[in-house]
Every structure is written in structure tokens, then in C-alpha cells.
């Protein structure tokens, strides 16, 4: 009999049927919204908490703290509750109300500040004391190891080892780092492509980090190319995925799909996989689908 943790991972890989105009290029979406917490971050949250428990860094009764833009917080709140751990999540005040309510439903304390950078500073300051354990997804190697152990192997398996390009939005960069490590070990010619917002754009879940806040787990040598995507492109592609493909996702997934389409326009033949990192119901109170 499975428990909820057993349902994390092994998400579907589905082909884009109507929005791909390139007959010799296959584009596939890795549906991470099918994880029980609704996003790709379930994988990292589980690995970060379980690994810390195995090392003895945390135990029953430990109070966790973490800065999050939303999905990691939801995943951590879900996993923390399962292991009887208290958690405070620090999130930008402009995050959708659905995210805050979901974290609170899982039993987390939510603190709202102005920017994600302020949230990170606040969490790091509190986490430096004896009363809290800072999860620190931005520096925690167990973040990307979750994808080295799970997401990457699943993609390799489900494409029958024929993947040519991997596309991921870049936030904490855990997904792209872990998948890059695994996929490049299988076939060094696989192209690893990151997606980030254009200078003037704001896309939930994707960041263009200032140098001093760049995630410590990020290694630029593991990314072959970065494609900038505008807010309008990410929004339009998220809406089209819902209406034309039945794939209900947020803006960061729309951005990754826009990057995948750009790649598809440049090559003669390819098997492109992009991460559809969460579900669209996280954004219903925003104007994404309005």
C-alpha cells in the first residue's frame, strides 16, 4: 500500500500535439504538477528533509525555516507535516493567495515580506540561531540531487534514451543542475537549456538573480544555453497550453515551453523535453487566465 510520499515522482511525459508546428521535432512536457503537492518542488523538499533527518541535522520537533516564492514552501509544508516538523515559510507579499492558503492548510506559519531577496535575508538571519534549521534550497545540494536521482532518470527512460534537448526555467536551479548532471553522464551531446525572464519581465517561479543572490548550487558550466523569455510570452504560452493541449500550468511552464519552441525553430530534428513545473490552479486569483 502506498503512502503520499510514494506518490512523489514518476510524473507523466506527454507530447505536445497542437502547438508544435515543426513536423521533424518532438516536444514533450514533463508534468510535474502531478506530484501530490502540485509541483516539481515536492522532489527537492522530500530529499532535503529526508537527507537532513538521516544525517541527524533535524529530528522530530525541529523548527524549520525557509524563504520561498511559493512551490517549494508548499512542498516543504506538506513534507514537514508528515514528519511532525514545525515550519515557518517566508514569502513575497505579492504571491498569489492560493499559495499562502495552501501552506497554511498544511500547517505552516507564513511570514510575508516585500521581495524574495528580503525573504532570503530574513530566513538566513533566523536560521543562523539555535532555534531554527534553515533548509536553504539555494545552497542545499540535496535540492539538485533529487533531480539527479529522479527527474533525470525518468526523462531518460521515458524518451527511450532519445532526448536531445532539456529545457527548464531557472529559479533555485535545482531541476536544471540535477537533470544536467544525470543526462550529460548518459549522453554528453544532450543540450541543457535554461530559461530566465527578460530584464523588464516578472515571471513567478523564474528569476534573473542579482549576482549576490545567485544560488550557490548553480554551476554555469552545466548549462549550454540560456534563453530569455518575456512576461507576455510566458503568459501567452501558459494560456495556449491550457486551451489547446489541456495542460494546465503556470507562467514559468509557459516560459519553458516558449524556450522549447524557439529551440524547435532552429533545428532540423530533435526530441525536446521541458519541465512543466506546476499546476495552473496556483494562479487563478491572478490575471494569468483572466
TrEMBL record:
Residues 6-278 form the Tryptophan synthase beta chain-like PALP domain. Pfam families: PALP. Pathway: Amino-acid biosynthesis; L-cysteine biosynthesis; L-cysteine from L-serine: step 2/2. Keywords: Amino-acid biosynthesis, Cysteine biosynthesis, Pyridoxal phosphate, Transferase. CDD domains: CBS_like. NCBIfam families: cysKM (TIGR01136), cysM (TIGR01138), PRK11761.1 (NF008735). This is Cysteine synthase. It comes from Albibacterium bauzanense.
Amino acid at each position: 500500500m502506498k503512502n503520499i510520499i510514494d506518490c512523489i515522482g514518476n510524473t507523466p511525459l506527454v507530447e505536445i500535439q497542437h502547438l508544435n508546428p515543426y513536423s521533424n521535432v518532438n516536444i514533450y512536457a514533463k508534468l510535474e504538477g502531478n506530484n501530490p503537492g502540485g509541483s516539481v518542488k515536492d522532489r527537492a523538499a522530500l530529499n532535503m528533509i529526508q537527507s537532513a533527518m538521516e544525517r541527524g541535522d533535524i529530528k522530530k520537533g525541529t523548527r524549520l525555516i525557509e524563504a520561498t516564492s511559493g512551490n517549494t514552501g508548499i512542498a516543504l509544508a506538506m513534507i514537514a507535516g508528515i514528519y511532525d516538523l514545525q515550519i515557518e515559510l517566508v514569502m513575497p507579499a505579492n504571491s498569489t493567495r492560493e499559495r499562502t492558503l495552501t501552506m497554511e492548510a498544511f500547517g505552516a506559519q507564513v511570514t510575508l515580506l516585500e521581495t524574495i531577496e528580503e525573504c532570503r535575508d530574513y530566513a538566513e538571519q533566523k536560521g543562523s540561531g539555535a532555534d531554527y534549521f534553515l533548509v536553504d534550497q539555494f545552497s542545499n545540494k540535496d535540492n539538485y540531487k533529487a533531480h539527479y536521482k529522479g527527474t533525470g532518470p525518468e526523462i531518460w527512460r521515458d524518451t527511450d534514451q532519445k532526448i536531445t534537448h532539456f529545457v527548464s526555467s531557472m529559479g533555485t536551479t535545482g531541476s536544471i543542475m540535477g537533470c544536467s548532471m544525470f543526462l550529460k553522464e548518459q549522453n554528453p551531446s544532450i543540450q541543457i537549456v535554461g530559461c530566465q525572464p527578460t530584464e523588464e519581465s516578472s515571471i513567478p517561479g523564474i528569476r534573473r538573480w542579482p549576482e549576490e543572490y545567485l544560488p550557490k548550487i548553480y554551476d554555469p558550466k552545466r548549462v549550454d544555453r540560456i534563453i530569455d523569455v518575456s512576461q507576455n510570452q510566458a503568459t501567452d504560452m501558459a494560456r495556449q497550453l491550457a486551451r489547446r493541449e489541456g495542460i494546465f500550468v503556470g507562467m514559468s511552464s509557459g516560459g519553458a515551453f516558449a524556450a522549447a519552441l524557439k529551440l524547435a525553430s532552429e533545428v532540423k530534428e530533435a526530441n525536446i523535453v521541458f519541465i512543466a513545473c506546476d499546476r495552473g490552479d496556483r494562479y487563478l486569483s491572478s490575471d494569468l487566465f483572466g
